[in-house]
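INFO worker-7 received task bundle
INFO bundle size: 2
INFO processing item 0
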Amino acid sequence: MSHAHSRPGGDGRSAPPRADAVVAVLAFGGIVVSLMQTLVIPIVPELPRLLDAPASDTAWAVTATLLAAAVATPMTGRLGDMYGKRRMLLISLVMLVAGSVTAALSDSLVPMIAGRALQGLASGVIPLGISIMRDELPAERLGSATALMSASLGVGGALGLPAAALIADHFDWHALFWASAALGAVALVLVPLVVPESRVRTGGRFDLVGGIGMAAGLVSLLLAISKGADWGWGSGTTVGLFAAAVVVLLVWGRWELRVAEPLVDLRTTARRQVLVTNLASIAVGFAMFAMSLVIPQLLQLPEATGYGLGRSLLVAGLTMAPSGLVMMATAPLSAALSKSRGPKITLMVGALVVAAGYGLNIALMSELWHFVLVTCVIGAGIGFTYGAMPALIMSAVPASETGAANSLNTLMRSIGTSTASAVAGVILAQMTTAFGPAELPSRDGFKVVLAIGAGAALLAFAVASFIPRQRDEVQSEPEPESEAAGASPTGPSGGSAAGAEGAEPAVRAPAAERAAGARAEG
């Protein structure tokens, strides 16, 4: 286990951060980054014309962001633990602004893909924000704050679609990226003004070989998932990428178990609470994204199909927007339930609510208000689940590994969303109905995807039931003394030893000692 390293300054203590301002700025940053998920949706059909490139190539404007995010999220989490979480947060926001400006100035394919990839590199902002909250906020604020920060992933996605549709309808498409650059710049100014730099550090050397191996494995896996439908699931390219992902990730895992300072501490990740929570996160990510894939299509299909509502993309986005507000509103409820019954129960309740929402959608899909109701119910469930997951993760890992652990959990959700996109794409492509000369997804196809979304939520419920109850409460397990001195989960303003009179800062252990501790714990 890595030992926390505190950067002393003056008497070794810092003034308590302004909790409300810290939470607001970090949540704003999370929402800005999550906007990238839906930023290009309004212009995807027009990209071949706008960029003068084939549709198969312009699809990389979406895929590049996905792949960059998958690689960057766990790496920035680990680097944040080593060298400072706020520092990595600022670097991520710089990537967001740089990517947005690059895309805003582009009129051809290559700079657009480069800009979208840079935007994807900013995806570590949300897990870094959660980790900063653990280090800096008072214990009584931690639950609701991390629930809000975690839910910002869904909030930004839900609010981003109508905003992007509105901008695309009334302005030049480049304005989408200028707007995201402006929002990123605001966050980039606010963070150093309001958010303190965490004193919880592990130090050490970055595992470059592990980073390259993880990147190669994840890119192979997600590329096969996201492009398999286009290339053919049985094609040599798709099968080869899946095989490469398996081989590379197995070799990478062996390396991570042998190296003294791994990129991902697999012994910590293999703890039952962390492992089961991450598995449930994949199912939750799948369940959340199924809604985003089905409902906008149903709202926009022609009324003549008998099941489409014939609405515009803007109306579809406005229909989805309340779900983001509901996610935000349920954050304190999620924290209250976690405090009284434990985050395990919160996660299970949220999964059941999501499943109920999909069940409602199968029965109610003929009126606009049906979809508003459904998205609000599913949004409430997602708010509960997203609030519970970081609490479960942070209660099972030392403060010095919070960034890496939260980033890995965020990656698991992303794998779930990518898988949902692939599965839904296959089903809707196979279950079609004739509409004039065109083939459109059928009503039954949409219902099958909704049923699978409900099944994924129920699977998350079942998996979450295996989370051990003895660790349901945050800080249920005492930190080692060397960490408690400067790395309490509640941070200096939460009554940690770091804030006690005369407390000595923790001293970073040598690599060999940390490795020996990790082996003993594993």
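INFO item 0 finished
INFO processing item 1
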Amino acid sequence: MKNILFICFFTFVSTAFVNAQELKSPDGNLILEFHLNPEGTPIYSLSYKKKEVIKESKLGFIIKSDIMLNKDFKISDTKFQSENSTWKPVLGEQKEIQNHYNELKAELVQEKSKRKISIYFRLFNDGLGFRYEFPVQDNLRHFIIQEETTEFNLTGDHKLFWIPGDYDTNEYSYTTSKISEMQSLVYNATHVSLAAQTTIKNLATQTPLMIKTDAGLYINIHEAALKNYPAMCLNVDDKTYSLSSHLVPDALGNKGYIQTGSFTPWRTIVVSDDARNILASKMILNLNEPCNFGDTSWIKPVKYIGVWWEYFTGGGSTWAYSDNQDVVIGSTDFSKLKPNKTHGANTKHVKEYIDFAAANGFDAVLVEGWNEGWEDNTAFKKERIYSFTKAYPDFDVKDLSDYASKKNVKIVMHHETTSSTGEYERQLNDALNFMVDNNYNAVKTGYVGPIIPRGEHHDGQQMVNHYTYVAKEAAKHKIMVDSHEAVRPTGLHRTYPNWFAQESARGTEFEAMEGIHPDHTTILPFTRLMGGPMDYTPGIFQGDLSVYGSKKNKLSTTLVKQLALYVTMYSPLQMAADLPENYMRFPDAFQFIKDVALDWDETYILEAEPGDYITIARKTKGKQEWFVGGITDENSRTAIIDFSFLPKGKSFTATIYEDGKTTDYKTNPQSYNIRKITVNSKTKLKQKLAASGGVAISIK
């Protein structure tokens, strides 16, 4: 269904402001006001149900060198349109998405210079998206962005759920604080051990930024459709409570290289007085371009296990085949090196994983450390680190490919670049052809460490283009991509549905390193997951790593919370991340991971409060079955689960996986209980969750 109306949802006012205009959302709850101030600077403000969300805020750019593209404008034309259409994602949280908005396009021109920009504002019922267009024009063709001067002026000292502004990593723990408290907390927030860090010197935060006001409004600021442009962080003025765009620079300090006839990404502000509506919003997806792949039948959800967690446990398994530190790709004969006897990615061991996957209904097995080069994976100082087409002597590519095929299991390719991206692009075509030849249809890419070309950043324009290039090239080979340590997602999985998951945040691996806070997974859906699915890698049953010998870390959750994450953390790519033997110790709990779906007809946000708790129900695509996941932070609580999402007049059997009476995430995390009850659409269940605990329910 598509219905586009060219009509005017605006008020035209002639006052002290120049060409003041008003735009309303389809339901009338959101109102955008736009005008030029006396200096000719574009100004916008936003309100929700008559409550101020964004105070008057400036728009525009400074382009090199010190050319002000943020004042001295006149409005040359305004255009209004409305769209109300629906579309179907290839993979997603619901089978159909409504795209309903009212739009204002303001065309601006500077009287003296004759330079032009246009600003598009789209108001949805769940928020505002706006972006800039640089029209083709006679006196501006190629230019360099010195700074984008977009502002988001807030109305008070709001509560933020934030990570520090950084050009190279999203893997920080979240801090919850008032804006005025950030400066006192930023030192501890940034002084942590990460593989690559370039923190912003002034007070700044990353997007998606989750905000809660004293007036009870929930505000989420991010961006959509990030292509050929640097990612946006946010400068923070903790005195005026103002945020402003801070684009990631390149090695020369330039922010972006632009040719007219192009658009910036959308700046997005999702707003509601109900936290559940933030999680339900599909505005960011709606602001991305539709998929133009002719055939998407090869893009499938993937539930996988992998030769991965054993590298983090301290049990002795390694990525590298030998202990030689002086390997040279293309010269070293690895068959003549002495094996270290701890290499995890060997043929015999991988076959054991394939057997386990086949026996338990998993789609695939990820294998890290299969390829030449892991002995000396030195970031930044070395450019050619790996071969992406040559396996170690103990990894028989052909034998394993045939073995997996007979078991109806795929092997997930692993391409760790250690951020030597120029070298990866040189090998990419050969690597993708190698995958096709050996029956691989998905790849996990990695970008650990500082970027080569040196001086570039993970979230700068060059790397943004790299990630989309890899996704597009992979699509030509019918290969799906799961990128780790990449720029945070902005809904591009609508345009490139084969780019079906990313890490780009602090994931489960940190449970084996510096740790994860109990509230982390109650914040991520309101922040990182606003832009797209996360390969969080849940499902760790043995949370006390001291049992393996060398690690003293303990998981920050109960076992049942690990189950619930499969529902609360949406992804069409989900890993059962623990070792197979730990699943065999708890086969009844493991059943939920085997059963839970990955692709959905509908999603119902039942309860939500950022940093505290989330309860979500989802209906499996094409089936009369549902799954519920509920999680809490370090505080125990009683979840109220309303089953009104079920079809009326029918009863169903619900299998409930719950924390036990003595469950404690610090001292007794593996205690759980499984029970069955009959439920219908009138059922309301009061369910106790232990501290950092959860509940998982399957309904059939």
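INFO item 1 finished
INFO post-check item 1: The chain has a mean pLDDT of 96.
INFO post-check item 1: The two ends are 32 Å apart (CA to CA).
INFO worker-7 idle
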